[in-house]
Every structure is written in structure tokens, then in C-alpha cells.
């Protein structure tokens, strides 16, 4: 287990805690402001990374075949849509980083955003905005005085069959727009009493958002294969929805595609008031999968954004939905969907000391703990059922790349993180040898029981900065010397004790007069494909290491 560093400055990023009660595995995350995805072990060491070319838009997943499924920003400005969580591109990379599939869903009629879900069939569920102009909205019974932007972007769910390398077939769709009710305009077909139809969506409901075009802002999608149902997190309504997937697209557009279940804010369908609301601008609603503690329940990250300021806090909520074996949800004719209260929650002590206003996620782990991503601060932490924190990590990467340990970091937001066990199919037969930590480290002022080297062990580089070649000196006791870029990717192995004749390296001489150590000198000439920037030289001495930054000016 990693013993945390004793530093001359505060340890602010990377691994902060790793107690014995933590679930051992590998954590995947993709910083929102950067274009890399990282896989780390429980000691915060980099195990693998993918260069994804675009910043995420927003989720990514490790598949059972070892590939990375990654949502991305489209790479250009959409002519119609633009808002929190926008994406527009879905990419699949193999373990070696080769791009296998690059599918764009971004045009003037729709835009992928936030989240996707891989189905057992290999198809992918996508959340997308679709465009509805002023005439469409009025025809559907929207009060025109609450159309601040003169249009709406209701959400739709699209099921895509990937066609490699850059296409896909739409095989199924569900549209919120097909399931509306309203009590504003009696001349419209969807006019009715909202409270009589909890299965319908009130087109005139909005929660203090002044009628923004991004009306629903669905930010999560999950699939239950046992029920063949889909769960959606509706941020702006502060509730979760469940819909039926066992329908044709035509059936999904009819009353058969109405909401099966909703929970969190019964005021949205006229069966509750402010004191009945239990979710607040939530993210990441998901079923707890079979085999895990709480299987069949729903786990939700409730951000707390719309709570009154004195009460504003975030919490993890676990509920048991009122569903029978046929997948039907019970509700009486005059009350809201149950349950009345969650069966488990997590919040900080005191509650108001933790507030993640947006993004974020949670995951139930096999040992019963819950992994939490507090997205705005890029903080991941694992809690036991009684709320004790047993693992904690702060994303060390922002828009400028990995940062130096001790930095007061900003712009290191992460949409979600996921923990994968060592026996996860996508990790079997992969090289999971841990490297160094992602954050940059300066050995001056840092002492660690894992990384402390014997007195006098250090690296030198001359000239530094350099523009063609650099000479690196290291103690003779070094068993491996490697070059890394700022993303933690290994660029070159200069020396390895068991390997002879490594390219682009040359032992110049041994200094037999040095005391207490003998030194070797190596010349490194970067490959033409490498660009200017900061690189890291790391030398290993058994299970210890020392590093030095070098700057290449091409």
C-alpha cells in the first residue's frame, strides 16, 4: 500500500488516501478540459492512457473487449445547439490507442450530449437534443410567454448500430416530444389535467430557468437488461424517468412509450409541492447491477443545486423503486410515485461542507462501498456504507495538462469516474504494470517511503533546455532510465539493465572517482516526430525512483 508523501508543501493532487477498506481495482477518468483518458491503480499510479484528440463530451467507458468508448466534442461549433455537456462525436479506441470508430452526430437538427450506454447487442444509446422552433412549441401547447429563446431543445434517445469505421445505423428512437401534456391551450390535442397523467411530460413545466431552450437537460442514460428498460436523469425537472425499450420506434412514439416511472420531484406532474422534492439537479442515475450489494435499486448523485442556499449540499441517494417482476411500477390515483424516502444516502458532515454544483457521478462497488466523483473539483473518493472515506484522489490534470504536486489546481473537472476490478474482462491479458503517478513531481522537498532513493542519487541534464540532444548523468546503480511526456506516456527507454543496444542512447563514460556513487552518462536525441515541450527523465533503483524535468526546444 502506498505510504503518502511527507512534503515541504501540502499534497494537493493525485492520491490523498488509500486505506485497507478500499476496493482494489483500476479507475478510469477523462478530464473535461483535456483530451486524454487515464486508467490508474489504487495507489494513483498510471496504468494506461489514451490520447483521444478531442476533449470529452462527456462520458467514457472501458468495454469488456478492452476498448475505450469515448464521447467527444465534435471539433467544430454546432450551428444551433450549444450548452453544458455538449458532445457530438463518439469514438472507440482499442487498448493500443488505435481509433476504430469515429461517429459524428452533430447537425442543425440534433446534437449528442452528456452520456451514452452500450447495450448487450453492441448498439449504443445516445442522448441528443433535437430542435423545435417557435411554431412547433406553440402547436404543442407551450405558453409562448415562457419561451425565452423562442425555441426548445427537447431530448431524444437514439439507438445506433455502429458501422466501422465512421458511420452508424439508427435502429430505434424515443422522443420526449411524443409524450407531452399541457393545461394551457384547450384547443390542442394534448390538453388535459396534468396531475391525472403522471406518465406524461408537462410542456409548460420549468423550474426557475426562464424557459431556456435546453428545456430538460437529460444528463445520464442507463439500461437494465433484465427489464429491457432505460433510465434517464432529467436535470432540469430534478427527477429520474424510466421508459420501455421493448418497443418498436413506432410504438415508442405512441402512448406505449409514455413514462413508466418517475421519481424525485412530484411537482412536475402536479402531485407534490416544494417540500416533497427529493432530488435537486441530479446527475448519474443508474441501476445497481445484479451481483452487487443493493442490486435492483437505483443509485443517484443529487447535486443539490436548486436547494435553498442554507441547505445547499450534495448527496448520494439509493432508492428501491416500486416495481414488480413484470417491470410494472405501482402508483395510486392520488399520490406520487414511491418510495417516500431513500433507503441509503451519503452526504458530508456537516452536510453543507460538500456541494458539487454540476456534473459528478457515483458507482456501487462489489464490496458494498460507493465510488463518488465530485466533478467540479475533480475529486474522487470511496465511502463505506457507514460513510467513512477509505480512498481519495484529486485529478491532477487541467486544460494545460498534468500539474506539479503542491499546485492549487483549477479547471480539473471530471464528468465521472469508474472503478474496474482486476478480473474485469476488458483487463484480462492486458499489461497492467503500473508506471509513475500522473502529476508532475519534483523530488526536491518530497520524501516518500515508496520513492525515497539513497543519499546522493540524483539526475543531471546538460544542456537544459536543449534543442538537439541532451546528456543525462545517472548513478551506476540505476536499473532503468526512461523518458516520459507530460501526459505520463513513455517516450523512450534510455537504459535498461537487462537490455543491450537500446537505440538513441550512448554510454559515454563511467566516473570511477565519484563518491559515494559511480555515474554513467547518456546522450538522448529526440525523434523527429517529437515536439517542443517539457519531458520527464525517470531513473529506477529497485523499487525506488528519482526524476528530473528537461525542456526540449526544437
Concise description?
With 554 residues, the protein is mostly beta strands. It is 2% helix and 38% strand. The radius of gyration is 26 Å and the shape is elongated.
Explain what the structure shows.
It is a single chain. The chain is mainly β and about 550 residues long. It has a domain at about 455-550: Immunoglobulin-like (Sandwich), CATH 2.60.40. About 0% of the residues lie in helices and about 40% in strands. The protein contains 2 helices and 39 strands. The strands form 11 sheets. The chain has a 5-stranded antiparallel β-sheet with strand order 2-27-26-25-24, with no helix packed on it. The protein has a 4-stranded antiparallel β-sheet with strand order 5-4-3-30, with no helix packed on it. Strands 6-7-8-9 form a 4-stranded antiparallel β-sheet, with no helix packed on it. The longest helix is centred in the first third of the chain and has 6 residues, at about 135-140. The protein is elongated. The two termini are about 40 Å apart. The model is unreliable at about 1-10, about 445-455 and about 500-515 (pLDDT under 50).
Amino acid at each position: 500500500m502506498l505510504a503518502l508523501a511527507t512534503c515541504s508543501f501540502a499534497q494537493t493532487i493525485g492520491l490523498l488516501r488509500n486505506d485497507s477498506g478500499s476496493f482494489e481495482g483500476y479507475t478510469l477518468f477523462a478530464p473535461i478540459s483535456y483530451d486524454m483518458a487515464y486508467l490508474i491503480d489504487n495507489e494513483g499510479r498510471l496504468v494506461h492512457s489514451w490520447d483521444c484528440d478531442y476533449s470529452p463530451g462527456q462520458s467514457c467507458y472501458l468495454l469488456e473487449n478492452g476498448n475505450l468508448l469515448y464521447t467527444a466534442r465534435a471539433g467544430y461549433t454546432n450551428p444551433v445547439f450549444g450548452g453544458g455537456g455538449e458532445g457530438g462525436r463518439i469514438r472507440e479506441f482499442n487498448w493500443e490507442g488505435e481509433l476504430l470508430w469515429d461517429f459524428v452526430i452533430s447537425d442543425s437538427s440534433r446534437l449528442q450530449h452528456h452520456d451514452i450506454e452500450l447495450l448487450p447487442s453492441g448498439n449504443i444509446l445516445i442522448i441528443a437534443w433535437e430542435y423545435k422552433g417557435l411554431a412547433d412549441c406553440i402547436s404543442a401547447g407551450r405558453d409562448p410567454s415562457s419561451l425565452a429563446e423562442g425555441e426548445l431543445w427537447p431530448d431524444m434517445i437514439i439507438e445506433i448500430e455502429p458501422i466501422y469505421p465512421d458511420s452508424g445505423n439508427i435502429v430505434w428512437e424515443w422522443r420526449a416530444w411524443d409524450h407531452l401534456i399541457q393545461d394551457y391551450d384547450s384547443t390542442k390535442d394534448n390538453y388535459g389535467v396534468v396531475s391525472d397523467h403522471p406518465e406524461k411530460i408537462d410542456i409548460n413545466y420549468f423550474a426557475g430557468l426562464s424557459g431556456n431552450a435546453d428545456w430538460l437537460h437529460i444528463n445520464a442514460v442507463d439500461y437494465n437488461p433484465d427489464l429491457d428498460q432505460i433510465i434517464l436523469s432529467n436535470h432540469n425537472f430534478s427527477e429520474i424517468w424510466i421508459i420501455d425499450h421493448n418497443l418498436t420506434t413506432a410504438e415508442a412514439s405512441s402512448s406505449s412509450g409514455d413514462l413508466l416511472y418517475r421519481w424525485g420531484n412530484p411537482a412536475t406532474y402536479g402531485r407534490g409541492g416544494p417540500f416533497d422534492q427529493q432530488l435537486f439537479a441530479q446527475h448519474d442515475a443508474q441501476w445497481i447491477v445484479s451481483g452487487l450489494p443493493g442490486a435492483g435499486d437505483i443509485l443517484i448523485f443529487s447535486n443539490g443545486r436548486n436547494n435553498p442556499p442554507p441547505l445547499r449540499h450534495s448527496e448520494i441517494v439509493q432508492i428501491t423503486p416500486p416495481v414488480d417482476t413484470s417491470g410494472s411500477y405501482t402508483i395510486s390515483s392520488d399520490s406520487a410515485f414511491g418510495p417516500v424516502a431513500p433507503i441509503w444516502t451519503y452526504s458530508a458532515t456537516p452536510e453543507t461542507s460538500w456541494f458539487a454544483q454540476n456534473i459528478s457521478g457515483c458507482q456501487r462497488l462489489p464490496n458494498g462501498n460507493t465510488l463518488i466523483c465530485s466533478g467540479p473539483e475533480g475529486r474522487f473518493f470511496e465511502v463505506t456504507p457507514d460513510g467513512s472515506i477509505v480512498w481519495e484522489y484529486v485529478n491532477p490534470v487541467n486544460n494545460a495538462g498534468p500539474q506539479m504536486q503542491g499546485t492549487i489546481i483549477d479547471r480539473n473537472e471530471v464528468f465521472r469516474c469508474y472503478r474496474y476490478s482486476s478480473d474485469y474482462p476488458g483487463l484480462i491479458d492486458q499489461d497492467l504494470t503500473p508506471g509513475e503517478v500522473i502529476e508532475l513531481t519534483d523530488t526536491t522537498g518530497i520524501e516518500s517511503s515508496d520513492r525515497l532513493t539513497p543519499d546522493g542519487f540524483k539526475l543531471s541534464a546538460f544542456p537544459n533546455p536543449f534543442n538537439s540532444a541532451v546528456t543525462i548523468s545517472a548513478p551506476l546503480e540505476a536499473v532503468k532510465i526512461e523518458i516520459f511526456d507530460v501526459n505520463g506516456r513513455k517516450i523512450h527507454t534510455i537504459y535498461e539493465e537487462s537490455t543491450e543496444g537500446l537505440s538513441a542512447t550512448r554510454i559515454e563514460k563511467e566516473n570511477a572517482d565519484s563518491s559515494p556513487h559511480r555515474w554513467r552518462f547518456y546522450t538522448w536525441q529526440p525523434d523527429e516526430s517529437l515536439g517542443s515541450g517539457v519531458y520527464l527523465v525517470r531513473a529506477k533503483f529497485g523499487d525506488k525512483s528519482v526524476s528530473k524535468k528537461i525542456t526540449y526546444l526544437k
